[in-house]
Target: BAG family molecular chaperone regulator 2-like
Amino acid sequence: MMKKRSNARGRMSEAATNTTSSASIEEDVEWEMRPGGMLVQKRSDNKTEIPGPKFRIRVAYGALRYEIFVNSQATFGEVKKLLTAETGLQAGDQRIVYRGKERENGEYLDMCGVKDRTKLTLIEDPASIERRCIEMRRNSKIQSAHRAISDLTIDIDKLIEQVSAIEKSISNGVKVPEVQITTLIEMLMRQAIKLDSISAEGEASSLKTLQGKRVQKCVETLDVLKISNARVKAVVVTTKWETFDPSPTTVPQWEFFD
Model:
């Protein structure tokens, strides 16, 4: 009698366990609506899931056309990753439009009705276009600054050569006209003003600073040379000229005729 009661209790416990397990499974299942109104179990994000068939999708990006192959159960976010390799446009800067509506990254292709050879429209995020335009203007500005500084560098190099020539002359005791030194200082100051007017950043700013220091050093050198030049005595060069006697050495004899 006790054995029968024990078996009955075991069967009741097993039935209760199965019921609880079934209820737990049903609670864990999530459902989604497929096209056509069919309610099916929601797919998981597990990458080991058996892939669905491949779709050939046509993508229009401005005047360009692309064809990509993608899993039918992929998301629009995965499509963007594939398009990055084709277009060079980062996924975050892409906007995909299907049936007149922009699609979110987490939306599934088949859930939205995408089929084989479906056409999608790809557009670039307006914020991305604005950022690129700003970057292009910035690069153009940097290149313009590089060219301007390069042109001034050529002129500064020529003026530095003149400074070296004056320095060499004064060191050799040759007095240089003061106006030559003053004019050279003015020419260097003009180059400094031109450098200051150039708007530069990054590497161009470093080049601008370098040339400015070169000009400043030359002006300081000329200021010192001006003092040294004032101490140099001017050398007077005299030339001994040979004199000639304009009177003839012989008197011509004239012959008279009757």
User: Anything to note?
Assistant: Confidence is low (pLDDT under 50) at residues 1-6, 19-27, 34-41, 46-50. The radius of gyration is 47 Å. The chain has five helices and seven strands.
